Amino acid sequence: MHNGGQVVSEDECVRFLQWALPFLHLRWKGFRRVRGQVCKRLKKRLATLGIGSLEEYRHYLHGSPHEWHTLDQLCRITITRFYRDRAVFRFLAQEVLPTLLAHQSNHEHPVLRVWSAGCASGEEPYTVKLVWHYELAALYPQVALQIVATDIDAALLERARAACYAFSAVKNLPESWRQEAFVKTNEGYCLRESYKQGIHFTAHDIRGALQAEPFQIILCRNLAFTYYDAGLQQQVLDSLCRILQPNGVLVLGVHESFVDQHDRFFVVSPKLGIFRKKEEGA
After folding, report:
1. pLDDT value of position 7
2. What are phi and psi of 88, to 5 degrees?
3. What is the spatial distance between Cα 48 and Cα 41, in angstroms, rounded to a whole number?
4. Contact 60, 102 (CB under 8 A)
């Protein structure tokens, strides 16, 4: 990193993050591989403030408590694409959703409610919609799919609503899906309006409770259980558990897990990070 004629080394950035992250209830382990994204943002922040080093920035944080909120924003990691970890979506389509839908189809007006937490620019909830459309909708025509997609970043939510993406974001999708569901324009691959129906984007910080009806599926992948410390992870898990229906499914990232929650969840697939909430007394 170079700032105002001074060099801020990677080692300095690492030391700074190892010092600062615990104050934000974040953990270094989750940031180790993606630190470059945060270090670049820190460089820009130093230039904006006219600060010459991360050591000076430490002192600035001590004297300016409001700056911690800005640092928290700088530490938000956004790495996403359509059909990320496709084995997860295959398993959901082939194993998880049919089981859930077997129960829902008994209702007079069956609805499958899905929450995509930390949805960034929309790739995950739209992937759920595409999987539903191409693999399940014809089998369950009586079931309505409702998706709530949340993120703390208003700019990312605007990009999600616009739903135009670079090829790198959509390249993992089956080619036939990409050709049918998207229109190629100067802005990239833009999702057709019909595939946006039933998805509601709203601003929300996963560290707080979401006021909504219960969900049958919650996707909270590569967020809380990667970047947050143990205490904050437990807080988020409690919040998710409260709004997940009994026998509902919680999907984490493929490298994520939570500590000793066997009293509340069955492990459906440890490899894919998929868990099912137990019924009370189970």
Report:
1. 60
2. -65, -50
3. 11
4. no
Q: CA-to-CA distance for 71 and 197, rounded, in angstroms?
A: 35
Q: Whole-prediction pTM value? A: 0.92
Q: How far is CA 274 from the centre of its chain?
A: 15
* Beta bridge partner(s), residue 115: 148, 218
- pLDDT above 90: residue 105: no
40-54, 95-109, 119-133, 177-191: the lowest-pLDDT one:
95-109
65 SS3 class:
coil
**82 touches 173 (CB < 8 A):** yes
pLDDT, tens digit, for every residue of 132-169?
999 999 999 999 999 999 999 999 999 999 999 999 99
Task: Report the pLDDT averaged over residues 69-79.
Answer: 94
Q: Could you tell me where the beta strands, DSSP code E, fall in the chain?
A: 2-3, 6-7, 111-117, 144-151, 164-165, 182-185, 188-191, 199-203, 215-219, 244-251, 265-269, 274-277
Residue 194 neighbours by CB under 8 Å, 6+ apart: none
- How many angstroms separate the CA atoms of 128 and 155, rounded? 22
How many C-beta neighbours within 10 Å does residue 22 have? 12
Query: What is the 8-class DSSP label of residue 223?
Result: S
